Amino acid sequence: MFKFGQDVGIDLGTATVIVYVKGKGIVLREPSVVAVNSNTGEVLAVGGEARRMLGRTPGNIVATRPLRDGVISDYTVTEKMLKHFINKVCGKFIFAPRIMICIPSQVTEVEKKAVIDAATQAGARKVYLIEEPIAAAIGAGIDIAKPCGNMVVDIGGGTTDIAVISLGGSVVSSSIKVAGDKFDEAIVKYIKRKHNIVIGERTAEDLKVNIGCVYPKIQDTEMDIRGRDLTTGLPKTIAVHSSEMLEALIEPAMMIVDAVHNVIERTPPELVADISDKGIYMTGGGCLIDGLDKLLQEKTGINVMIAQDTVSCVALGTGKALENLDILDGKIKR
Predict the structure, then answer these.
(1) Architecture of domain 180-248
(2) What is the pLDDT of residues 30-42, one digit of tens each?
(3) Hey, what's the torsion of the CAs at 57, 188, 201, 177, to 10 degrees?
(4) Would the pLDDT of 279 be above 70?
(5) C-alpha closest to that of 283 among 102, 31, 94, 75
(6) Any idea which fold 141-178+256-310 has?
(7) Does the pLDDT value for residue 331 go beyond 60?
(8) pTM, full prediction
(9) Alpha-carbon torsion (115, 119, 120, 121), positive or negative
(10) Which of 10, 70, 61, 18 has the alpha carbon at shortest distance from 39?
(11) Structure confidence at residue 23 as a pLDDT band (50, 70, 90)
């Protein structure tokens, strides 16, 4: 069945790719992992299937994340991954789709070009870019067109994007490479240092999701994990407590708090007054770590709210921005 060119919005995340199709909503949500045969360069699996292979592949198969810290680290693999997802969503098309892709707020021109080229090679007729904090703000239901300040902190897998938005654009923004992945790394290092056990990134992620916290909990919870004991080289099971997770995660969490503080310092006073009235909006999967909103609220003295569908906020915002593609095209043509 042939389809006319659709308008597609892609949240090209370090951890997850979410695809939004105009008129249908979110149609695909897959981990941004690709398994490639290193001898032939052939793609063996993409998304969830490839994620299950992470850390479990033989020598000739490499399961990788082609995006690191919010930007493309492996151009060829990213292009193949985009092609796979676009074909899965659009099927066979007579007119290639127009695609809008989210990028971190502080990317360089070279990094922008890499995203545009990869999407064009993957079959896009035209590529538009939108900054993640702006897409997140639209997705969180904030009216960004008004002349008043809104602060958005979008914590993804590879980057945390912080922006103060007014009149449809970002006034002050910052992007730091501390987010979900850095939390995982901190857990791996902590378990190795304290328990002398090596765990993989998937186990670290399970710990983060289940018992991770950055603010003291009323009740200490625990979880059993299995890793390799460095002394004996054999598997070993240990119980890890949420109080230990607090110790492991507080450093990267404070980096995010400091970055927010830095953006507030650079914001014009009128907008700071608006933010103090309305509060700070948190979006992205990384903000779901227990207590991060409380920590930020305590350190800044400003009310912090977590958006409703945090993980899909950026994709939903891109979807809403797709409605205005014709206006964008008109502007470009004029």
Answers:
(1) Alpha-Beta Complex (3.90)
(2) 988 899 888 888 8
(3) -120
(4) yes
(5) 102
(6) Nucleotidyltransferase; domain 5 (3.30.420)
(7) no
(8) 0.87
(9) positive
(10) 61
(11) confident
CA 141 to chain centre: 19
What is the Cβ-side half-sphere exposure of residue 58, based on CA atoms within 13 angstroms? 4
Q: Does domain 7-134+314-333 have CATH number 3.30.420.40?
A: yes
Q: What per-residue confidence (pLDDT) applies to 186?
A: 95
Q: What does residue 40 show for φ and ψ, rounded to 5 degrees?
A: -105, -15
Phi, psi for 229 (deg, rounded to 5): -70, 130
Q: Which residues belong to CATH 3.30.420.40 in the chain?
A: 7-134+314-333, 141-178+256-310
Alpha helix (H) residue ranges in 92-161: 109-121, 132-139
Dihedral sign for Cα atoms in the order 87, 88, 91, 96? negative
Which residue intervals of the chain bear CATH 3.90.640.10? 180-248
pLDDT, one tens digit per residue, over 231-278 is: 999 999 999 999 999 999 999 999 999 999 999 999 999 999 999 999
DSSP H or E stretch at residue 238: strand 235-241
- The string of DSSP letters for 188-207 reads HHHHHHHH-EE--HHHHHHH
> For 6-31, what is the mean pLDDT?
88
Is residue 1 over pLDDT 50? no
